[in-house]
Amino acid sequence: MEDITMKWIKEVFGTEKPIVAMCHLQAMPGDPYYDKSKGMKEILDKARHDLLALQRGGVDAVMFSNEFSLPYLTKVKTETVACMARIIGELKEEIEIPYGVNCLWDPVASLDLAVATDAKFIREIFTGVYASDFGLWNTNCGETVRHQREIGAENVKLMFNIVPEAAQYLTDRSIESIAKTTVFNCRPDVLCVSGATAGSATNPDTLKRAKSAVPETPVFANTGCRVDTIEGLLQIADGAVVGTTFKEDGKFENLTDEGRVKEFMDTVKSFRK
């Protein structure tokens, strides 16, 4: 990895091989599974619980996402962005580590939210055309990056998920080809390699092939990292995005378990030494 690349990672995350923890927000107004009887207070209370558990457990950064806005949209509605902005705004004084945002699956909305909340990074699907669970999934990276400049978000780091969950490229392309052309054409700050769904393991071979194809670009393991696999993944990857394994009993739908976070981060910190 070039020194300049390592420099920005250390500047943003405070360490090499950072662990970016997911703060999964509950279904919000407009989402099919929003609990109207409990309202926004319940969403905010659970977000605060998860944020504080992640911070006390020692993660390097946190990323807020509308993870329970299932089924996802590729053009997020205004009410979702507004609710996320309110939640992050109310939590802001309690956030002690770098943070990013992810409006699934809408890069323009993610950028808008980042600017509104002073987030340092976003993760999204910026490139490619896919057959997905959400229908035919198209992107326009050129328009997205131009929007980034128009709204003054040029300092927001862009994490490109190049193996989208629940989706596959419409043409048969190798991970090496995808990584190389994405880097050449779009200049991502990070490439993220995922499994099939949230919590599904990132394939180490796919991760290794992506990193080998673009050795000077940071590559993160994006899903399915566990305490028993993270050391092996970090031998290949330049960092990781972690969510499900931090939950109680390691189940996607549960709240964050501080003890599981600490055990995981103790392993990571020992590896980094």
From TrEMBL:
Pfam families: BtpA. InterPro entries: BtpA, RibuloseP-bd_barrel. It comes from the Bacteria. Belongs to the BtpA family. This is Sgc region protein SgcQ. The lineage of its organism: Bacteria, Bacillati, Bacillota, Clostridia, Lachnospirales.
